Amino acid sequence: MSGEPILSVDRLTMRFGGIVAVQDLSFAAERGKITALIGPNGAGKTTVFNCITGFYKPTGGAIRLNHDDGRQTALERLNDFRIAKQAKVARTFQNIRLFPGMTALENLMVAQHNALMRASGFTFLGLIGVPTYRDAEKRAIALATDWLKRINLLDRADDAAGNLAYGDQRRLEIARAMCTEPALLCLDEPAAGLNARESASLSELLRSIRGELGTSILLIEHDMSVVMEISDHIVVMDHGVKIAEGTPREVRDDPKVIAAYLGTDEEEAAAVMESGS
Amino acid sequence: MTALSTETTQAGRTVGIPFILKKAFLSACVALVLFSLMIGIRTEAGPDGQLTWWTRFGDLASIVGLVFGGSIVIELLRQWIGPTGAEKLVPAPIQRSLSLAGRFLGPALLVFTLLVPVIFYNQRYILDLGILVLTYVMLGWGLNVVVGLAGLLDLGYVAFYAVGAYSYALLATNFGWSFWVCLPLAGMLAAIWGVMLGFPVLRLRGDYLAIVTLAFGEIIRLVILNWQSLTGGPNGVSGIPRPTLFGIPLDNSDDGLAAKLGIEYSPTHRIIFLFYLILALALLTNWVTIRLRRLPIGRAWEALREDEVACRALGINTTTTKLTAFATGAMFGGFAGAFFATRQGFISPESFTFQESALVLAIVVLGGMGSQLGVALAALTMIGGFELFRGLETYRMLVFGMAMVLIMIWRPRGIIGHRAPTVYLTKAQAISSDLVKEGHG
Amino acid sequence: MDYFAQQLINGLVLGSIYGLIAIGYTMVYGIVGMINFAHGDIFMIGGFIALISFLLLVSLGLTAIPLILLLVLLVAMAVTALYGWTVERIAYRPLRHSFRLAPMLSAIGMSFVLTNYSQVAQGARVKPVPPIITGGYTLHEGPEGFAVQLSNMQIMVVLVTIVLLAMFTWLVSRTRLGRDMRACEQDQTMAALLGVDVDRTISMTFVIGAALASVAGMMYLLYYGQVDFFMGFVAGIKAFTAAVLGGIGSLPGAVLGGLAIGLIETLWSAYFSVEYKDVAAFSILIIVLIFMPTGLLGRPEVEKV
């Protein structure tokens, strides 16, 4: 059971018209580990994410999610909200998608929609205010409060999410995804736009999610310092195919990876080299 | 007329008299061209179908003069208020004290409304007006669920009002069912129609949503108009039974309420009963909506308005969320419709035109999308204002349309420009509507 | 068969009128992203202006029908265009960067204003005109005595539509104004940075849309021989339906949608029932949008995640 990877992607292919964004990509994300998906811009990383989280329907291939209890879900057959609801895959977005007009706390409450919906007897019991729903709501608020504490935003709980600083919004979005109590957390460039201090606290947060809660994480990231520091396993993509995978150390020394980065963006290649030393 | 537009005069630029005169002159020229044919010449179909015409240069001259003068006045006003124009018409201190008063405004308004029949017992006109305003408050609150909370644009809301009204009218006149049996049925039927409208529009956004809801409203009206055997077509349904106080009629008969209570009969009794009936229905709508907002479904509606993609990523079934919003809004519309039918005693398709939908939508938007108090105030302003201009006859809709334009320019985000959170840890802080999204509208 | 051919002709003529109005909706939507609810009333105003200027010219003693029609066309286009400009200036420009529902309600308000303005100014009664363009051709005489007719009036409506469309397509694709319009459609801020006068371009969009609507109004007047203050509402909704059906924002789509609505309406009236012709048109709109959520020729909306 524990030997099985939480997510296995098998020969995933995604075509948009004539353009092949992802070609025969296979990789696995280990349970309770942080797996990073890296590659130069336009390598097809976000496309892979969108296939995993149901926003795109893959052209070919299989995506399997292995639950703790041995159940297996075929993600390529589920569509949008069912992936989050049934397969327990949560995600964040490259360009933050919070509910800006709702408070931080409300954002975290919306994330617990399905659990609260059941507790409220699909609204009917909640409308007349049965005590079981009130208890469930208290628990939901407690969970949300707990997460606000973890991301250090407890004092901003009643502020509109749209009013928070950029870095806070990033962390809130992760907390919101975590409030769905996912089996697999997918993060699309969580460190984008963060300064060094914020990046460090993000690494801290992700490590605590893995360590304390045992949640498996799959992330796309450009910030190599974050990737190299926290990843257990790295998959490198370029032009829609996998060019390398392995531990941070293995990937760092892989000439193909360096070439891929050098061929596109010198700065990033330098970043890869540098964080290796 | 053109002078009304808030052209952004560069801040700090002093605008001299010659500029104002020049602008007014240009406005007058535009007005002259616009009105020369439409007002300067009046056409009319003669007795034998021949078209005749005559000139009205006097009217034309006075209107152009009015535009010239008005343009100067507005330009002077604008200089006096400052370059940002309309926003500052209400000074900041007043706005602040308004928001403070807002906390007490709701309860005060409620108490006043409860007392209206006592205060104005003998003024039938005011009571009728109150009933009318409350009906629109209820419609506004119903549509608010769809537009204000879920952020789905609905230009055909009147369809559900019509479904509710005809459901009660037909069930009552054909089967003799009582109002209290028909009321929930009317709501349910309207809700079913809401879901039927919801299905085709699930994937639509923005203007596609607008036209389909508008088309839906028109379809319902046209079917009612043309299905003569069922609905009586343009003649409508008449003789709709008046509501009873749980079986006790409010009339002059021996079984009537007055006779039972041993008091003298007065037709006002029924009016007052209707007043409290619609008040109760509206308050029910309000109560349910406030409750729903604090339940997961209500939060999901608002989240849907904010960001549909994020909702899907959080495992929220956007299909059922949208459908429940349509159904809930439609149900309240259906209740209001049943009330309308029992109050009027007669309904016809004329009462369910697009203008009604537009009016209710205007109430919701003017109220400040999503704000219950704002909607109530907007309904009071719009319907009350509309009544004030009753004496203007044909000019009434003209004034009404102009008011709609001016109000939108003045307060595009409505009277109540903030959103109240549904849950809080320490303190409920109002959220500025600049942050709140407007959904697919 | 003959009956069908006749209905086809009638449908195409009606569709041409809808198409002319629909262009105004689609253009404004493409550039400003709002539904100009007052556009149907601009069409109605165009009809009235055409009627009044026609009356004036006739009483001035002009007798040459083609000359009169040409003058009427020019006057109607010019004056109605000014109406379009004024409406934009008063009701929409102050709300340019506001949130989306505000200009829409402002437009609905403007539509009420225009409808009732024309009722107040010209009275509520239907204004008839005698047929001005008469005659036509019998295309085919069936054995049962049913003849397929093509009137000169119908030829003129279709011809005018085609000519205006050609002019308009040229305007959008070849002139500087057209280029500015397309630039504003893509990105107003960027267009402004590159020296496009956005305000002027948007004004011109309304002017052109109103001018085309006035032509539609004049065609309506000539074809149906009457105008009234309320005709803008129904025609406006139909034309808007046409624009959405064709894919709002797409010019060929507007014309295609117009023709489709015209044909649906005419054929439904001919074969089923006149009363339900609008129900048919609206139902088909809903059905098309279920399967093609962005209309017939609209660009599919790609959801960027």
Key features of this structure:
heterotrimer, B: mainly alpha, two-stranded antiparallel sheet, two-stranded antiparallel ribbon, 16 helices, 66% helix, disordered N terminus, C: mainly alpha, 11 helices, 5% strand, L-valine transmembrane transporter activity (chain C), transmembrane (chain C), amino-acid transport (chain C), Branched-chain amino acid ABC transporter permease LivH (chain C)
**Spatial gap, N to C terminus of chain A:** 37 Å
Point out poorly predicted stretches of chain B. 1-12
Helix percent band of chain B: 55-70%
Uncertain stretches of chain A: none
Q: What is the overall shape of chain B?
A: globular
Strand order of the largest sheet of chain B: 1-2
- Determine the fraction of residues in helical runs of chain A and give it as a percent range: 40-55%
Radius of gyration of chain B: 25 Å
What percentage of the residues of chain B does DSSP assign to strands (E)? under 5%
Q: How many separate helices of chain B? A: 16
In total, the number of strands of chain B is: 6
Structural class of chain B: mainly alpha
Beta percentage of chain A is 15-25%
Helical stretch count of chain A?
Answer: 12
Distance between the termini of chain B: 29 Å
Structural class of chain A: alpha/beta
SSE arrangement of chain A, N to C: EEEHEEHEHHHHHEHEHEEHHH
**Which overall shape of chain A is indicated by the principal axes computed on the Cα atoms?**
globular
